[in-house]
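Re-running the complex after MR caught last week's input typo. The corrected sequence lines follow. Everything else is unchanged.
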Amino acid sequence: MKNPFVSEIAAQVAPLTGLSPAEIEYALTVPPDAALGDYAFPCFLPAKTLRRKPADIAADLAAKFQPGALVTAARAEGPYANFFADRPAFARWILSRARAEGDRFGGSDEGVGKTVIVEFSSPNIAKHLGVHHIRSTMIGNALVKIYGALGYKVVSINFLGDWGTQFGILMAAFRKWGDATTLEGDAVSNLNALYVRYNAAAKEDPALRDEGRAWFKRLEDGDSEAVALWQQFRQISLAEFEKVYELLGVRFDVLSGESQYDRHMPQTIERLEKAGLARLDQGALIVDLSAQKMPPVLLRKSDGATLYDTRDVAAAEDRWNTYRFARMIYVVGGEQQLHFRQIFTVLGLMGYPWSKDCFHVHFGILRLGGEKMSGRQGKVVMLRDVLREAVERALKAVTEKNPALPNKEEIAAAVGIGAVVFNDLKRGRIKDVDFDWDAVLSFEGETGPYVQYAHARMCSILRKHGLPVADAPDWTLLREPEEFALLKALSVFNAAIRRAADANEPSVISQYLLDLCGRFSTYYHKHKVLGEDPALTAARIALVDAVRQTVANGLALLGMKAPEEM
Ligand code: ARG
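Corrected-run output:
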């Protein structure tokens, strides 16, 4: 989003510093105290090339500054040159923009013509989504929306873990103990129970393992009975996943999975061999990465079975051939850091320049009541159960707060699920997340309900006002420092979205929203929006409406709803 105030400063500062206007726009900061100025240029930047002290450069910039309609004054403050914006002009600019752009406000078109692939969620079939799956699912979903807001064409992919010897074991188990009732009711749990039972039995009787392997071999060879069974397991799992995605409001453009790439294996392995990368090691085919100080990538086991690594190499090639992406993002937990480093290294060694555009966006673990919740070690808490409980608890809270609310169920769903999502996205993704029911659902503090409630309060002010929001109120009436602080916060929404995309970091948006809502609450406690003077009220209502729109847009980027009442 072009900021004409920043452009004007850059145009004046550029010729005096030898930096380009773009470099100056990038370097401009916002002083913490608005009394010092609205934008600050740090003069250490050109000090070296100009061979002058930063403070002298700052003084010079201030002295030579030509006041204009947008930027009215400049002042030196130590090594900084500080600039002052014309406040009514600033209000007119940002509020008209928010109004004209509506639910697109904050976005831009810098990504137009470029494709970003976001692979996320990617659960394994024949198991329920565990509560820990919320992390990949909602970080990925937010990245899809964040890149989308910047104009990128985004392709969201769910890459199911739906291939491998474990499904041979599942088939063997089903053939041994399963029947039609296994596939009724909670079929996913039934299947998982058979799988666990079979693995336990195989510890006593290794022949069971061979039986499992034989079933997977049949599947790989396209045996119709094996394929039919596998397809049934996959369908049942998908239907279960779909229910949870629906609750979360998550959709995928492409439903893919490891099974898709079985048939690509021979060609991928051939390319690796031709490139001189694959070699035999005790009967297994590997890519040696000792020069890169990593363990080898296992391409094919001695029994001929291909592996997770190989399927990822094949999938990456296929995605490049299909989409010619500018970036490909894998939203997968931190345990797989080595795996992705290996895969990206192999792609680089294969000569694919796009390997440098592949990113593993990893994240910390989720702790429920202090315990690690992962599929493998921890006990599995199902995501659907957590979401249901969140909605129930939110219904209680909402009913207490506002008993007269007409559509309580709908609002409880938005608040309960939103609370879980916000809790997941509020801190830097690398950090572990603590999940504590009371903290998650509180209406105070850094929570989803707090942000949603601030939004609902703005909606209620607008409802009480009852008149349409004016397009061009008297901007000179927005004179309070708290009003200007809000206007400035609105003006950096686009920058926040860009930073979120640059770092693949949805928490930039959640933190932005907390800051914006905090500023709003300060303003609202201090000043009356709906007052006696209709002109002043009209100007303030325009401001409130723009803040409301911005909060709603930010919540949408996080994959949350913004109820108008709560
Ligand atoms: N299904 C895997 C798991 O649950 C995650 C897949 C991640 N994506 C990938 N392209 N390897 O651990």
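None of the earlier attempt is carried over here. The domain at 4-85 is CATH 3.30.1360.70 (Gyrase A; domain 2). Residues 119, 122-124, 159, 161, 312, 330, 332 surround arginine (CB under 6 Å).
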